[in-house]
C-alpha cells in the first residue's frame, strides 16, 4: 500500500509539516493549496524539499467550484485553473483534486458540468496532469460519488477521473457498493478519513471531527477494499481536519496517521504480527521512594521476593503484585501477561510504538517495555509456567493468598490532544475494545472517560481526559484493586493511618432515594466511606484513597452479582470530593 | 423582575457557586440536586448559608422520570420523590422541577402520566410543595410545553403546575404563542436560557452550547414576555449548561448571567439608561515607553498638544489621534465619542461593568473609563463642539490634515472562556451589532473572529479568540488605520525603518489566479507587501507592521468602492506569516 497524507492534516507551517510527514515514513503527500500559498518557499523549493525528504507529491488540492459554473463566468475558472496548473508544473505534481461546486449559483446540469470538466481536462492534459473530481458531501448538486462518476463518464476525457473520499462517501450513507461499475483506472485518487458518528451539520462535522481510520466509527476499510478491488493502484492518502490535528504536535499526528494506515493495511491483508487474544493484568512496577513501603503495607502487601539482578523487590497480597524498583530511572509501569511476548514486541515496533529501555540479565524474562502517548509504560510478560514469565526473575517465598483478588483496572490520564493516540495504542497493540464514552461533570470542567477491555482476558484500562483548563495529570493516576472483603480492607487501611476519601452524607441520602437500601446496609456504607452502585442483581462497593506515595490513588472495590461497570452514577460525587480534598481529580 | 439562577450554571463546588451568585446580586437560586449531593454541607447548612447570603431557594431540581412510569415501578418513584421532599423540607424549598420522562420504557399515556403526577401532587401538597412539570425537548413522549400543560391540566391538582423553559420550548420550534390558554398561576416556574442556532442533536446542543439570554439567537425575550403576560409572577431564573460555564470562573459567570437578566428586563420594560445610538472611534491612549515616539513618528503622527493637568501628549495625523500617557499606571485604551456621556457611564454602572480609575481636573472632560473582560479600556468622550469633548483638555496647535483618515477598526483578543462576556460588553454597553462569526486556520490552531459595529456610527471592533493551546494575548492587539494612500504610507514606514510583515510570493500568484489582476497592480501590491481583496466593485489594500512599541500591531488599509469587510480571504496567509516571523498571531 502506497501511503500518503494531505498537508492540511497536520499543524504548523508547511516546512514543519513536511519534516513530520517524512519522519513518519510516508511515501507521498497531498499539497494543500492554502499551505503552499502561505509558505515563503516557492513551489520549486517545495518540490526540492520534498525530493530531499523522499516524499512524492501525489496530489495538489483543492481547486474548487470548477463545474456547473454559469457559462459567462467559466473564463475566470479557466484562468484560475490554468494558473494552478502552472503552480503544479513547478511542484512536479500530476494529479489535481477538483471538488464539486458548492456555490449557491451552481447549475444543476450534468451535461454542462461534464462539458466544463472536459475543457479543463484538455488544459490539464497539455500539462500532463490528471483531474480527480470529488463529490463533496455538501456539494450543491453533486454530493455523492455516483453522481461524480456520472459527470466524469459524460466528460469522457482521459485526463478526467473520479476521486474517492471515504468520509464524503460514507457521510452521505453510501458504502463500497457505490463504486460498482467504476473501473479502477478511472479512479484518480483515494482519500481516506474516519469520523465518530455525530448527528450534526455535515460540513461542521467534516471540519472539526474527522479522525484517522480506526479512530472513528465509519467503515473506512470497506470503501478502501472496494476501491482496491476495482483495480485502483494509487496512493491511499489521509485527509483529516479536526480541532485536534489543528493544535497537536505535527510529529505526533504524523506517527498516529501512519499507524492508522498500517492498521488499515493489516485489516485488509494481515500484514502485522498478530495482536494478542488474551491480556491479563500482572503487576505494577513502582519507583522506590519515601512512603512507598508504608503505603504497600497498609494495602496488605508484604515483600516476598527479590530480583535476581536488579534492585527490585516483589511485594504481594493474594492476586496483587507490586514490584518496587530502587533504580533512579524507574518509572511507574503496568505489567501484563499476554502471548506471544516476542510477537507483541514485534507488533509494537511495526506500529512505531516506542520501546522503553530496559536492561535484562542472562536467562531473565524478555519483558519488553513499550511506552504509550500518555506516558504509560507497559511491560509484557508471558504467562506463568513457561519461559519469559516475569515472576521467575524473582527469588523468594511464594506469596500466600490474602484479601486482594486482582488488579481490577488501571486508570490512565491523557491530555486532550493525545486522546486519539492513546486509544490507538490500546486498540492497535493490545486489541483492546472500547466501551461507550462517558462524560462527567467535574467542579472545574468535565471529565471524559472510556473503558477498554480485551475480547478475552481480564485487563481493564480506563482512559480519562480532563477538560478543566488546568494542566492535566498523565499516565497511571489510579489503580483499582479487587478485594474479597472491601469493608475489612477499608478498616485495615484506616488502622494503618491511611485516610479514605470523605463521602458526603447527602450522597447516602440520594442512594437511599434511588435504591431504597435497607438501613443497615446504608449505615455500613457510610461507616466505611463506600460508594455504591447497583445494576440488576449486580452490586459494586468501592472506596478511594488520596494520592499515595506509589504515585497513584488506590480504589478498593468489591464486585458481586456480575456487576461489570465502574460506578459511573457516583463519579461526579467522587470528583467533587477529590476537588474539595485538594486532590487532583484525575481518577476514573 | 425577580432574578434567579440554577447552581448548575456555574463551575466550582456548591459553596463557591453560592458565594458567586450572591456577589452578583441575584434574588434566588435553583438548587441542582447533584450539586447538593456532592456537597459536604447538609441541606440545612445549605439553607443557612443561603439565608446568610440573602439568597432564596426558589427551586429544587430536577426530579426525573416520574410520570409515564410502568405502574409496577411507580412505588419506587414514590419512594424517590418522598425522599427528595424530605431534602426540600430541610432546604426550605417549596417548588420542585419534575422533568418529562426520557426512559425508553416510558409509556405514551397522558392519563397515566396525569394520574401519576396527581399522586405526586398529593405527596407534595402534604409538604407544602408545588411541582413544576417540564417538557424536556428530548422527552420520550412529552417534549413540548403544550403537551406538558395537557398532562398538568388532566392531573388537575393545585400542587401540580407547568414549568416554562425557554430553551426547551424554542428548541422544539415553539414560541410564546405555545403558552396561549395557560393561566399565569398554573405556571410554576420560568427557566431561561439562550443558545446559538446549531444543527445538531438537541440533547448535545443543550448540554454543551446553552448561553445566557442575548448571547445566542433564540427569541428568549418573546417567551419571557408571553409568560409574564399570562400573569406569571415568579422568578426569572437562568439555567445554562455549556462547556464554557463548566470551566469559567464562577464569579465572572455570575456577573455575566446577572447582566443578561438586566438586559432582558430592559428589553421588556426599558429599565436601563438608553444605549448610545452612534459611536465613533476618537483616539488611542498609549502608555509612554521606549520606542513609542519613533513608532508614532513613523506612522506620520506628530505632537500637537499637551494635556492641561496630566503628563499626556496628543499626537495626530489627519483623522487619527493618539495620546501618549507618561503616567506609570497608564493602560492601552480606546477613546470613543458617543452621547450622552453621563448616560453611558450610568448604563455601564447599572450593567456592572467595572469603572476604570481616572483622575480628572476641574473643568476637564468627564471621560468615564470602563473596563471590558478582555482588559480593553474604553474612554467615552462627547462629540467635538460641546462640553466633555476629550480634545478640549489639550492645549496646542490644531492638527493639520495628513494622510491618515481614521481609526478604521480595533482588534481585541479575549480568552476562549471570556468570549461571551466580551461580546456582552460590546452589545450591552455600546449596542454594537455582531457580524457573522468567521473561523481561520492558524498554523497551531484556529482563530475565531467576529466584527462588531453600531447601527449608526463608525466604530468597528473585531473580537478574536485563539484556540491554539498557548496562552492567548488579551486586550487591544491590533489597530487598523485607514490611509488616503496606503502605498505612500508603506513607503514612509519603510523609510523610517519599520519593517512590514513579509508576504509570501505564492500569495500574489494565488491573487492572480483568483482575480486575474493586471501585471502592474500585482507588481505594485508585491512591492508594497500589500494584501488585497475584492468583493464586487469594492477593493481593500492593506499591510501589517509587526508588534510596535505602542503595544499593538498596526494595519494600514485603504478601502475603495464600498468594500466593507476585513480581507478574510487572506487572513490565513497573514497568520502564517506572523507565525513565521515569530509574532503573536493575534491580529484580526
Automatic annotation (TrEMBL), chains A, B:
Q: Binding residues for a divalent metal cation, per the UniProt record?
A: 134, 165, 191, 239
The protein's Enzyme Commission number: 4.2.1.118
Gene Ontology molecular function: isomerase activity
Pfam families xref list? AP_endonuc_2
Keyword NAD recorded: no
> Which cofactors does it use?
a divalent metal cation
Q: In which pathway does it act?
A: Aromatic compound metabolism; 3,4-dihydroxybenzoate biosynthesis
Reaction(s) catalysed by this chain, per the record, are: 3-dehydroshikimate = 3,4-dihydroxybenzoate + H2O
SUPFAM superfamilies named among the record's database cross-references: Glyoxalase/Bleomycin resistance protein/Dihydroxybiphenyl dioxygenase, Xylose isomerase-like
Domain VOC intervals: 406-546
UniProt keywords (A-Z) are:
Isomerase, Lyase, Metal-binding
Under Gene3D superfamilies, the record lists: 2,3-Dihydroxybiphenyl 1,2-Dioxygenase, domain 1, Divalent-metal-dependent TIM barrel enzymes
Q: Give the protein's biological function.
A: Catalyzes the conversion of 3-dehydroshikimate to protocatechuate (3,4-dihydroxybenzoate), a common intermediate of quinate and shikimate degradation pathways.
* Similarity remark: Belongs to the bacterial two-domain DSD family.
What is the recorded name of this protein? 3-dehydroshikimate dehydratase
Amino acid at each position: 500500500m502506497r501511503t500518503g497524507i494531505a498537508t492540511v492534516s497536520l499543524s504548523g507551517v508547511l516546512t514543519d509539516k513536511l519534516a513530520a510527514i517524512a519522519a513518519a515514513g510516508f511515501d507521498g503527500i497531498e499539497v494543500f493549496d492554502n499551505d503552499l500559498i502561505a509558505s515563503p518557499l516557492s513551489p520549486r523549493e517545495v518540490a526540492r524539499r520534498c525530493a530531499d525528504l523522499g516524499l512524492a507529491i501525489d496530489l495538489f488540492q483543492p481547486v474548487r467550484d470548477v463545474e456547473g459554473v454559469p457559462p459567462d463566468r467559466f473564463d475566470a475558472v479557466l484562468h484560475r485553473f490554468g494558473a494552478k496548473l502552472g503552480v503544479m508544473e513547478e511542484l512536479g505534481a500530476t494529479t489535481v483534486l477538483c471538488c464539486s461546486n458548492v456555490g449557491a449559483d451552481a447549475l444543476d446540469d450534468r451535461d454542462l458540468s461534464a462539458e466544463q470538466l472536459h475543457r479543463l481536462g484538455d488544459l490539464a492534459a497539455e500539462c500532463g496532469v490528471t483531474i480527480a473530481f470529488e463529490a463533496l458531501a455538501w456539494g450543491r448538486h453533486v454530493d455523492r460519488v455516483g453522481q461524480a462518476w456520472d459527470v466524469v463518464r459524460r466528460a469522457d476525457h482521459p485526463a478526467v477521473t473520479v476521486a474517492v473520499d471515504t468520509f464524503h462517501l460514507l457521510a452521505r450513507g453510501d458504502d463500497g457498493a457505490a463504486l460498482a461499475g467504476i473501473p479502477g483506472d478511472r479512479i484518480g485518487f483515494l482519500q481516506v478519513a474516519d469520523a465518530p458518528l455525530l448527528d450534526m451539520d455535515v460540513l461542521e462535522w467534516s471540519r472539526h471531527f474527522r479522525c484517522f481510520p480506526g479512530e472513528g466509527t465509519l467503515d473506512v476499510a470497506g470503501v478502501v477494499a472496494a476501491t482496491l478491488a476495482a483495480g485502483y493502484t494509487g496512493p491511499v492518502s489521509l485527509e483529516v481536519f479536526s480541532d485536534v490535528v489543528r493544535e497537536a504536535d505535527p510529529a505526533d499526528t504524523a506517527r498516529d496517521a501512519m499507524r492508522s494506515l498500517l492498521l488499515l493495511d493489516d485489516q485488509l491483508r494481515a500484514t502485522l504480527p498478530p495482536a494478542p487474544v488474551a491480556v491479563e493484568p500482572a503487576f505494577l512496577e513502582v519507583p522506590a521512594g519515601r512512603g512507598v513501603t508504608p503505603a504497600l503495607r497498609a494495602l496488605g502487601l508484604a515483600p516476598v521476593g527479590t530480583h535476581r539482578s536488579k534492585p527490585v523487590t516483589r511485594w504481594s497480597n493474594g492476586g496483587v503484585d507490586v514490584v518496587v524498583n530502587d533504580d533512579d530511572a524507574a518509572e511507574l509501569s503496568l505489567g501484563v501477561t499476554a502471548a506471544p511476548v516476542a510477537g507483541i514486541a514485534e507488533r509494537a515496533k511495526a506500529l512505531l510504538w516506542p520501546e522503553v529501555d530496559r536492561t535484562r540479565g542472562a536467562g531473565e524474562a524478555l519483558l519488553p517495555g513499550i511506552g504509550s502517548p500518555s506516558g504509560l509504560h507497559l511491560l509484557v510478560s508471558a504467562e506463568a509456567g513457561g519461559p519469559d514469565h516475569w515472576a521467575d526473575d524473582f527469588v523468594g517465598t511464594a506469596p500466600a493468598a490474602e484479601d486482594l483478588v486482582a488488579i481490577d483496572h488501571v486508570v490512565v490520564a491523557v491530555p486532550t490532544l493525545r486522546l486519539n493516540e492513546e486509544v490507538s495504542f490500546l486498540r492497535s497493540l493490545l486489541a483492546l475494545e472500547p466501551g461507550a464514552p462517558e462524560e462527567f461533570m467535574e467542579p472545574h470542567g468535565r471529565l471524559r472517560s472510556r473503558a477498554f477491555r480485551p475480547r478475552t482476558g481480564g485487563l481493564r484500562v480506563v482512559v480519562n481526559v480532563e477538560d478543566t483548563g488546568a494542566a492535566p495529570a498523565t499516565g497511571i493516576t489510579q489503580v483499582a484493586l479487587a478485594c474479597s472483603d472491601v469493608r475489612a480492607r477499608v478498616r485495615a487501611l484506616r488502622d494503618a493511618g491511611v485516610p479514605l476519601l470523605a463521602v458526603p452524607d447527602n450522597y447516602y441520602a440520594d442512594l437511599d432515594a434511588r435504591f431504597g437500601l435497607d438501613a443497615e446496609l446504608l449505615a455500613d456504607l457510610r461507616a466505611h466511606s463506600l460508594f455504591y452502585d447497583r445494576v440488576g442483581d449486580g452490586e459494586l462497593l468501592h472506596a478511594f484513597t488520596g494520592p499515595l506515595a506509589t504515585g497513584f490513588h488506590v480504589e478498593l472495590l468489591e464486585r458481586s452479582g456480575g456487576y461489570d461497570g465502574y460506578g459511573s452514577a457516583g463519579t461526579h460525587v467522587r470528583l467533587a470530593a477529590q476537588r474539595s480534598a485538594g486532590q487532583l481529580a484525575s481518577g476514573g
